[in-house]
């Protein structure tokens, strides 16, 4: 294994251990000692990657922007919908992303995230919405900044509610419902029946596969 | 002052002190000793009202359902909108309600709230939506349980985002934007132009008055 690759693996294993500790204790009660114990790494190896608990938290928050994968779609509103569905799917299967979102929505002594994770999501969606507008997919007179701010806020809340109601098992259904209710206020009437609000068959298969491998506990 | 009235005042002063401690430290790090210090009450008086920190938290969570005031409106969708605007206004001005919402969205050792606060909001809205449906205000074929679950989730997220972006100063604008975007997927086209998505003039005046008296700090 190349040195760089091994480094990436250690980093990922630290983030995964930190995610499980954060999930149990929350940020303030989590300790690097406990995180270390779950990785089997030395303290020196931990500090090589992350000089502090804050640095681990910051790397986790950065993982949120990595989950914002813009899919290639001719219809840009379909790209927006699919981005949100893929993000939801990752939330179901990736404990590091879940811990990252929790760090964003809770008020702890780790105050770094602030607006950044929301802003990154807004930027990713806004780029797609501007293209959608140029292609004549959106209703006239929409304030696209307002639309994207609203979608990011609404998504944040429904994934939180999905966690409380079903440990995120019903998240895909909730995201689909969001789009069915929201699209008549956003998309042109002609485009509306052509937009798919559920995961594409390939994504759905992917989800079922990953879910059988993961356990949220 | 009657004994009962004095008791209610002590209770409210404990909840307000607890709200300020929770706001600074979060649930797990908050102590009844610190809450007591801010009320000037004896420990006996505290325990008379609340036998434990959990009991204080439970009373706070109950404060959320008290904020769900169903307004009298001939058009029931207008009642739904106004309920959400009034709730948003209270969030801006009432620290106990803010602490209550924080207890609901954060994962702490206080696990009591769970679904209850969400469910109470869903029930309040669902009652109004069923009336709206009977009065022919809603589009045919809506799943009203799904609609209300979505609205409660979306509201939860936008108030969280409003807190991060502006300490909830822009909350009324965000709630108005939610309704403008959402109503075309919910209300009949004929009703749409008659629905008001901003606070009524009397509510707005009320807000300005209370805001000048309160300080979120």
UniProtKB/TrEMBL annotation, chains A, B:
Record's keyword annotation contains Transcription regulation: yes
Annotated DNA-binding residue span(s): 31-50
SUPFAM superfamilies listed in its UniProt record: Homeodomain-like, Tetracyclin repressor-like, C-terminal domain
Keyword DNA-binding among UniProt keywords: yes
Bias (Low complexity) ranges: 197-206
Biased composition (Basic and acidic residues): 207-217
UniProt-annotated stretches for the region Disordered: 193-217
Gene3D superfamilies xref list: Tetracycline Repressor, domain 2
GO molecular function: DNA-binding transcription factor activity; transcription cis-regulatory region binding
Annotated ranges, domain HTH tetR-type: 8-68
Record PROSITE patterns: HTH_TETR_1, HTH_TETR_2
Alphabetic keyword roster: DNA-binding, Transcription, Transcription regulation
Protein name: TetR/AcrR family transcriptional regulator
Source species: Streptomyces jumonjinensis
């Amino acid at each position: 294994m190349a040195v760089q690759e091994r480094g990436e693996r250690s980093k990922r294993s630290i983030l995964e251990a930190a995610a499980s500790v954060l999930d149990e204790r929350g940020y303030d009660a989590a300790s690097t000692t406990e995180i270390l114990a779950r990785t089997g790494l030395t303290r020196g190896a931990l500090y090589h990657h992350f000089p502090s608990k804050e640095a681990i938290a910051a790397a986790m928050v950065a993982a949120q922007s990595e989950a914002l994968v813009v899919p290639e779609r001719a219809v840009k509103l379909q790209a927006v919908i699919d981005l949100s569905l893929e993000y939801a799917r990752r939330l179901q299967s990736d404990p590091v992303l879940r811990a990252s979102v929790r760090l964003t929505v809770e008020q702890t002594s780790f105050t770094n995230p602030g607006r950044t994770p929301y802003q990154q999501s807004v930027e990713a969606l806004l780029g797609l919405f501007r293209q959608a507008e140029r292609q004549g997919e959106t209703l006239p007179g929409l304030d696209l900044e307002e639309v994207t701010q609203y979608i990011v806020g609404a998504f944040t809340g429904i994934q939180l509610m999905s966690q409380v109601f079903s440990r995120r098992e019903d998240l895909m259904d909730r995201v689909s419902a969001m789009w069915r209710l929201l699209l008549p206020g956003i998309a042109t009437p002609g485009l509306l029946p052509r937009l798919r609000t559920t995961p594409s068959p390939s994504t759905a298969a992917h989800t079922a596969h990953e879910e059988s491998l993961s356990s949220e506990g």
